[in-house]
Design brief:
alpha/beta, 43% helix, disordered C terminus, Rossmann fold, three-stranded antiparallel β-sheet
């Protein structure tokens, strides 16, 4: 069920609601709730009463919820494939998974659904080359091809790519992007359901004895890295990594040159832990060049905090993998 459908259902039951009540009930961001409410008011399904912050929305008429339209030619295997691999957030803040989202994606681009679905499946199959038996991506060769003798991470992995050719963000990439930008706990929880087991399996397989979470650069009401740390609830020591950036924080993604990213990471984080470990895992939400994790790994090794440092990102950039092989 989409966020829009959930809001409609809530009004069918309660008739009058505030945006705050909907945000609390559904666990979604204020921005998404207000987007949907504005659409429903414009279509005269709801009326808006009062002024901020004492605004109430009242149902004017019932709204039939339309069932998902599933093309008959799409078989159960393809439907399951889309459910596992495709998600989009519409312009009005609706979360659309699987065939429902894919149909809308195709409609917006005037693409035939069935033909485009086969192309999407083939594209995903090409990228499957980069995933190991555990279903994660090893980006170590990409990192070494970038930093050469200045590579301090022993290995780096992604749970998934952030985006793929033509079709844009992956399902996990979409969840992370909108969860982070929209400060959306509902999407954060969806993301955690997808990544929890993989992270625990990775930690056990690599005999990790301490974990470090990369501190956020930009101040936000809900910090996604803090959310990940709290929801993983690992029974392991947490490495002390401090943010030491200047008055105006500069996010890595705003820097285009590699040397700028390295310098930024060098002067943004400090490892203050005095304990000794064998194998440390650094976790970040998204990795582009890998400079943040690599520079933190250098600081860990210089202070002899750990012998081995691995990196794990929720999503990572595909750029640079063509150095390894051509898909």
């Amino acid at each position: 069920m989409t966020i829009k459908e959930k809001i409609i259902e809530a009004f069918e039951k309660s008739n009058e609601l505030t945006a705050k009540e909907l945000t609390t009930r559904l666990g979604v961001s204020k921005q998404m709730v207000h987007l949907v409410l504005s659409e429903l008011v414009a279509k005269q399904y709801l009326e808006k009463l009062g002024r901020t912050p004492k605004t109430i929305y009242r149902k004017l008429k019932s709204i039939p919820l339309k069932p998902n339209a599933i093309p008959l030619a799409i078989n159960a295997t393809e439907k399951e494939f889309l459910k596992n691999n495709f998600l989009m957030i519409s312009d009005t803040g609706n979360l659309l998974e699987g065939i429902e989202g894919f149909q809308l994606w195709c409609e917006k681009r005037n693409q035939p659904v069935l033909k485009t679905l086969q192309e999407f499946i083939k594209t995903k199959e090409k990228y499957q080359f980069f995933y190991n038996n555990e279903g994660i991506v090893n980006g170590s060769q990409k990192l070494k091809s970038t930093y050469h003798e200045k590579t301090f991470l022993d290995e780096i992995y992604y749970l998934d790519f952030y985006a793929i050719e033509r079709f844009g963000k992956t399902k996990l990439g979409t969840l992370l992007h909108y969860a982070k930008q929209g400060q959306n706990k509902f999407l954060m929880n969806m993301m955690m359901q997808k990544i929890n087991a993989k992270i625990f399996t990775f930690i056990n397989q690599h005999e990790i004895d301490a974990v470090g979470f990369v501190p956020p650069t930009i101040r936000r009401e809900i910090q996604i890295m803090k959310f990940i740390q709290e929801n993983l609830n690992l029974n392991l020591p947490i490495l002390e990594i401090k943010k030491i950036s200047g008055i105006i924080p500069i996010p890595q993604k705003s820097l285009s040159k590699l040397d700028e990213r390295i310098k930024n990471a060098e002067n943004t984080f400090a490892v203050t832990d005095q304990r000794k470990f064998n194998s440390v895992l650094l976790i970040d939400d998204a990795v582009g060049s890998g400079s943040t994790l690599n520079q933190i790994a250098e600081k860990i090794k210089n202070k002899e905090v750990a012998k081995t440092v691995l990196g794990l990102a929720i999503v990572g950039s595909f750029k640079g993998f063509d150095v390894i092989t051509d898909i």
